[in-house]
Amino acid sequence: MEKKIILLVEDNPDDELLAIRALKKNNIMNEVVVARDGAEALDYLFGTGAYEDRDTSVMPQVILLDLKLPKIDGLGVLKRLREDERTKLLPVVVLTSSKEDKDLNESYRLGANSYIRKPVDFIQFTEAIKQLGLYWLVLNEPPPQGGSNI
Predict the structure, then answer these.
(1) Could you give the CA distance from residue 130 to residue 138 in angstroms, rounded to a whole number?
(2) In this structure, how many other beta carbons lie within 10 angstroms of the beta carbon of residue 31?
(3) Contacts of 30 (CB under 8 A, 6+ apart)
(4) Angle, vertex CA 54, rays to CA 49 and CA 57, nearest 5
(5) Which of 26, 48, 65, 102 is the most buried (most CB within 10 A)?
């Protein structure tokens, strides 16, 4: 059985811990790879930098992408993903505390699959992660690996 990896792109250690706790609380035991800035996320996905030995044929089932990131912001990461044949079909869920309509609009314009505002309350956040996990890891049919050959 193929492993369904979640790539969590989050620079806030508290939000990272909260997301991982919420996944575990909902029995979502998938491997979670954490990138703490946009550049690290792109290195992971494209097998560059610290991840040059990574098998890039194994891509995450879903990317949880914060917008406010150091080095390269979430919108920059999303733009780069959608420009590349290897990653343009990867499901990307923007998971952010931004309440800016321009961030929402730009995320969808650049190809986000979903946009979720982080609930402040842990119980609400846990429920949001549960729904997210159920949909993206269980119900959703992802494109085949190397989806550009469809």
Answers:
(1) 11
(2) 11
(3) 3, 4, 5, 6, 23, 61, 133, 137
(4) 125
(5) 65
- Whether the full predicted model's pTM is greater than 0.85, yes or no, is yes
End-to-end CA distance of the chain: 22
Give the pLDDT confidence score for residue 149 in this predicted structure.
39
Q: How do residues 111-131 score in pLDDT, each as one tens digit?
A: 999 998 887 788 888 888 888
Place of tokens 């954490």: 34
Strand partners, 95: 116
Residue written as tokens 């560059």? 48
Give the burial class of 114: count Cβ atoms within 10 A of its Cβ; 0-12 exposed, 13-18 middle, 19 or more buried. Answer: middle
List of domains in the chain: 6-139 (3.40.50.2300)
Task: Identify any residues that bridge with 32 across adjacent strands, giving them in sequence order.
Answer: 6
